[in-house]
Write a structure and sequence with these properties.
alpha/beta, 11% strand
Length: 1113
């Protein structure tokens, strides 16, 4: 006996281990085991199972193998631990039958949503339902917290000591992974036993549990099935509306209403903008409010702010950032809406006051909402004020309000957010987005998305001299618009509002006129041959200087601005990028001189004299062997005041300069520099002498002729008011002098930066249509671009651009002054003095401006022609000859859903609740063999068009074109199902590759990190290697985290500059460890924000889900 026991315990145990235990390894799975029993056990007739959870999608694979047995009973234990975790509170007593069934039902639905999309899986699920109806399968739910058991009984009709029978026990549930079907297999551990006592024990346990459990009836399952895509066939119309609800439902259901102050018009288009803008603010922490000039952005922003205050609670603080001229406007509007006490106001040049806590400003962490007016002023991420604003916007909120958000919300207002380049948009987005954890659908990495477009744009800018690149620039901005801008921008043009019947009727009933902006009128002035020759020769001298690109150049070199560039190397080291600085200054001055020539001959002659004087003064410094270079000191202005060089040096020393830092001897420069100065002086003397002979001014003659005959024609200009813009104050002085002294007009008001604030009231009285006075004291206002922003001049409807601004979007701002709510004239006239043909040839001012403007139109859909007759306003024509842009279409779709919501709330709710994976087959006579698939995860939604040749991403409006349907259209039975499943699975696969895998931020090949960021990270890694101080190391880690996430623009630049000082010299770094530690500590204080772990929005991407799919027969 003892021997046999030893025998059993010793030798056979090894054999039992290898046969009775299995771990779901290859060929050794639960599925294999059950399959083996079913085929080998001749008397197998009953399958009884107790499982923790049960996947209907796993059942069908097992069902095939179980063959024709007469009884299948499955007891499902509800995993209560999970439920407690999810609800975080005690559930009702689970003896409550309905509650237990509800929990099972939710699991059933979830299983069907997550199951593989294939006819086999669906067949298996339907088979399970049939088996339940026929009684072949019986299921019960056991609702006891202690049921964690999982075991499977394979029995004959009557199990006894003399018959076969198996029990399998362990960790596997009935699911793909539990059965071991899923690859790679999940590790499970199970044991199979057939001793009668073991099997009998488990069988008795089964029946005891079965009798305590709640039966799941055929009716229950039929009811559950109806609530999945397998049990309900929607109509094409229902699927179409489902997609619209998915997109616009939040806006439609938003029952926002606001008590408007007296005198404020209740405009539907503004209310919709408030709803849309508020939701963007909640979803993305920020938005662009970019309605075209004059539609009431200040009002809309204030209403969004009021709504935010109401939602976030009484401790909410707002910071409003604005150009100085707009202060009254903001303060008055906030007072009007009763939120003045919640806000502090700061001009866009004084943000340092907030950072330094001056003038009673709150700490940056105390603000919850930042509103930035004329936000295009922050388009360059290399400016100091951008860095200041970014530090404010990215600092965490100290008081968690009712919304429980520690991230600030940021509203950027500007009718022209895109001033020059794609980088402008990226930089502004990075005021409320982080590059690496971008919230915008479909853009996991913001800089990664923009980098290729920025490179393409730069390439096109280099090629535009040789060919027309306009359409390619359009394409870049079209991409940026559809992928990014649309999702974080509220922008409507006047045409969008007039194209919507509701909006149009609303503004008409309130007596509001949107004037029609007529195409630009060209005023070309003719020069006689003498003037023309002089003009063209001068242009050549101004632009044909000797450079690396133009080695044969004979014109001006602008040497006066390039002193640092020609210092000998040993002196030049103290100036970073000396060559680049010199060449950039020369390029800027070259453009400036041509612009002056184009503005007015008067302004140009003045600049010519100045350039000769400062060049001569520089030569004088060489003669005295005392050359001063102090960029911040404005040496040339001091020389102009007749200060001697010694006096200037004394003055500099009192200002804190060391003499050796600013004073150089003549031989500190290369010999060619003095030659260049003499060369320039010679040309300038000759030009000054030549222009002294020019007494004509054909441009002014053209202006005077139109002043009398055209600009004040009552037909054109009913109010008798005229606005003239020029970029040059000298030109304005010249015009004012000639208009008043020569023409004798006494009604001319000249406004420049110097007198603007003093004249604020006068401007309102004479030119603002919303002001109660309608004074005729001044009828012509001539001004620089100081009035191109934030002022109403809309008693006038005629604008004269005396010269074209270099930055063409400035023209939009100018027209916006007269194109505002309250304008009375039906048309706006826009006159341009075009640069003479020769000037255009040299600097392509026209082409430059056109390319920039064209890009602007593509990204934002502008209203009117701004710059030339040739410029076609892009209204994003999609199909038909019916010109409707994407915003018009979205407004119309929003209206369609809103009408359904208001007229048939029951149908709306039914469609909204359609199950995931709902699908339809249509026979419309077109789109044959195509499918549209809508896929979503927690961070991105995407529409795909599948055809027999492949799958491509399409945008929302394109998808709607396919999905659009009338309520009466019925679905057709599914045909060619194989192709439908293939289409849907191809779309899912593409989504996973493009998005889920691409969003892995830990990958080493980070395309979004520029060289500066990589260099900054390398420097921080080196610091970590030389220090033993653990706190210092963790500070470096925090900064590296900020850089990798792309939170701050200037932080990596600062670190790169610091690393250059050390040139990877570890010994010096070790020596300076204390200094470095202080610098890193300072940076952490300045650039403080939350890391990914602290932010609630840091989330992993959930599995992609099929929302709907539609195939065409």
């Amino acid at each position: 006996m003892r021997y046999s026991l030893l025998y059993r315990r010793g030798f056979v145990l090894r054999r039992i281990m290898s046969t009775k235990f299995f771990n779901n390894g290859l060929g050794n799975t639960l599925f294999d085991k059950l399959k083996g029993i079913a085929s080998e056990m001749a008397t197998f007739d009953r399958f009884l199972a107790v499982v923790g959870f049960f996947r209907s999608s796993g059942y069908f694979k097992l069902r095939k193998e179980l063959g024709d047995i007469s009884e299948i009973k499955i007891l499902v234990g509800i995993n209560i631990d999970d439920i407690f975790r999810k609800h975080n509170k005690a559930l009702l007593m689970l003896a409550d039958e309905d509650k237990a069934k509800e929990i099972y039902h939710n699991g059933f639905k979830e299983d069907i949503v997550n199951a593989q999309y294939s006819p086999e899986v669906e067949g298996g699920i339907l088979q399970m339902c049939e088996d339940l109806v026929s009684g072949r399968l019986q299921m019960r739910i056991h609702a006891t917290k202690t049921l964690h058991a999982k075991f499977y009984l394979c029995l004959p009709q009557n199990h006894s000591e003399h018959s076969d029978g198996w029990v399998i026990m362990g960790s596997s549930n009935i699911s793909d992974s539990g059965l071991g079907i899923k690859q790679p297999p999940q590790y499970e551990l199970n044991v199979a036993m057939k001793d009668f006592d073991d099997v009998k024990y488990c069988s008795d346990e089964f029946w005891a549990l079965w009798n305590e459990a709640i039966p799941l009836t055929a009716e229950d399952i039929e009811e559950y099935k109806k609530k999945t895509y397998l049990g309900y066939q929607p109509t094409p119309y229902e699927l179409y509306i489902k997609v619209l609800i998915d997109t616009f439902g939040d806006q439609v259901e938003d029952d926002f209403s606001i008590q408007l102050p007296d005198g404020v018009k209740d405009l539907k288009y503004q209310k919709d903008a408030v709803i849309q803008g508020y939701q963007m603010l909640m979803q993305h922490n920020g938005l662009f409010l970019a309605d075209v000039v004059g539609l009431g952005k200040t009002m809309i922003a204030t209403m969004i702010a009021k709504r935010f205050v109401e939602a976030n609670g009484k401790n909410t603080n707002i910071l409003v950032v604005y150009p100085p001229a707009l202060e009254d406007n903001w303060r008055n509007t906030f007072k009007l809406f009763g939120i003045y006490k919640k806000a502090q106001f700061v001009t866009n040049g004084s943000l340092s006051k907030v950072l330094e806590g001056k003038d009673n400003y709150k700490d940056k962490e105390e603000f919850d909402l930042i509103i930035v007016d004329e936000a295009h002023g922050f388009r360059s991420d290399s400016s100091g004020k951008y860095d200041e604003l970014q530090k404010i916007c990215k600092s965490p909120c100290m008081n968690m309000g009712l919304l429980k958000s520690s991230q600030k919300k940021v509203m950027l207002l500007s009718a022209t957010p895109l001033n020059n380049r794609p980088d402008d948009l990226q930089n502004q987005l990075l005021l409320f987005q982080n590059s690496q954890s971008c919230t915008i659908d479909g853009v996991p990495n913001l800089k990664g998305f923009f980098s290729e477009h920025i490179l393409d744009y730069k390439r096109l800018m280099r090629e535009r001299d040789q060919r027309d690149v306009t359409s390619e620039v359009d394409k870049i901005y079209e991409q940026i618009r559809s992928k990014v801008i649309d999702k974080v921008t509220v922008r409507r043009t006047r045409n969008n509002i007039l194209n919507d019947p509701d909006y149009k009727a609303d503004i008409k009933s309130q007596g509001i006129i949107f004037p029609n902006i007529l195409p630009p009128n060209e005023l070309e002035y003719m020069m006689d041959s003498d003037t023309s020759n002089r003009f063209y020769e001068t242009l050549k001298q101004l632009t044909d200087g000797k450079t690396d690109e133009n080695p044969e150049g004979k014109g001006l070199t602008y040497a006066r601005y390039r002193a640092v560039e020609f210092l000998k190397p040993e002196y030049r080291n103290k100036y970073k990028n000396a060559v680049h600085i010199g060449q950039t200054l020369a390029a800027i001055y070259r453009v400036h001189m041509v612009k002056r020539l184009e503005s007015s001959f008067y302004a140009f002659k003045k600049s010519l004299r100045t350039l000769l004087r400062i060049t001569t003064d520089m030569i004088k410094m060489f003669d005295e062997d005392k050359v001063i270079i102090a960029p911040d000191l404005k040496v040339k202005d001091l020389q102009a005041k007749n200060m001697e060089l010694d006096e200037i040096i004394e003055y500099a020393i009192t200002k804190g300069y060391a003499a050796e830092d600013i004073l150089f001897s003549a031989d500190a420069f290369t010999s060619e520099f003095l030659e260049m100065l003499h060369h320039d002086r010679e040309i300038l003397e000759q030009l000054n002498a030549d222009w002294a002979k020019e007494n004509d001014d054909p441009k002014f003659d053209k202006f005077r002729e139109n002043l009398t005959h055209k600009f004040f024609d009552k037909e054109i200009n009913p109010s008798g008011k005229l606005v003239l813009f020029s970029e040059s104050v000298d030109t304005l002085n010249y015009l004012y002098d000639r208009l008043t002294n020569e023409i004798g007009r006494t009604d001319v008001l000249m406004v420049t930066a110097a007198n603007r604030n003093r004249l604020g009231q006068t401007i309102k009285e004479n030119f603002d249509a919303n002001f109660e006075s309608d004074s005729m004291r001044y009828n012509i206002i001539i001004t620089s671009d100081v009035l191109a922003e934030g002022v109403n001049l809309h008693r006038s409807n005629v604008i004269v651009n005396y010269d074209s601004p270099w930055n063409a979007t400035r023209l939009m701002q100018r027209i916006g002054r007269v194109n505002r709510i309250g304008s009375v004239a039906p048309n706006i006239y826009n006159y341009m003095f075009y640069p003479s043909q020769q000037g255009d040839k040299e600097i392509q001012l026209y082409k430059n401006a056109l390319v920039k403007l064209q890009g602007f139109h593509s990204a934002f859909g502008e209203d009117a022609q701004i710059y030339s007759k040739e410029e076609i306003v892009k209204e994003f024509q999609m199909f038909d000859n019916n010109v409707k842009d994407s915003i018009d279409k979205k407004i119309a779709l929003l209206r369609e859903v809103r009408e359904l919501y208001n007229s048939d709330r029951e149908l709306y709710r039914k469609i909204k609740a359609l199950p995931m994976k709902s699908r339809v087959m249509r026979d419309t006579g077109k789109h044959s063999g195509k499918s549209v698939i809508f896929v979503s995860s927690n961070v991105k939604t995407e529409f795909y068009l599948a055809t027999p040749t492949g799958v491509e991403v399409i945008d929302f409006l394109e998808a709607v074109k396919y999905l659009k349907s009338k309520p009466e259209e019925q679905p057709v039975p599914f045909a060619n199902e194989e192709q439908h499943y293939k289409h849907v699975n191809s779309a899912l696969a593409q989504y996973t590759t493009e998005y889920v895998e691409a969003a892995d931020t830990s990958s080493i090949n980070r395309t979004d990190l520029d060289k500066t960021s990589l260099e900054a990270n390398k420097f921080l890694r080196t610091i970590k290697q030389i220090t033993t101080d653990s706190e210092f190391k963790s500070q470096c880690d925090v900064l590296m985290g900020y850089i990798n996430e792309g939170i701050y623009a200037q932080l990596p630049r600062y670190l790169k500059a610091l690393s250059r000082e050390y040139k990877n010299d570890r010994a010096k770094m070790k020596q300076d460890e204390y200094i470095l530690q202080n610098k890193i500590s300072e940076l952490l204080g300045e650039y403080q924000t939350m890391n990914k772990e602290q932010r609630h929005d840091a989330q992993d991407i959930s599995n992609p889900q099929i929302i709907i799919s539609e195939s065409f027969k």
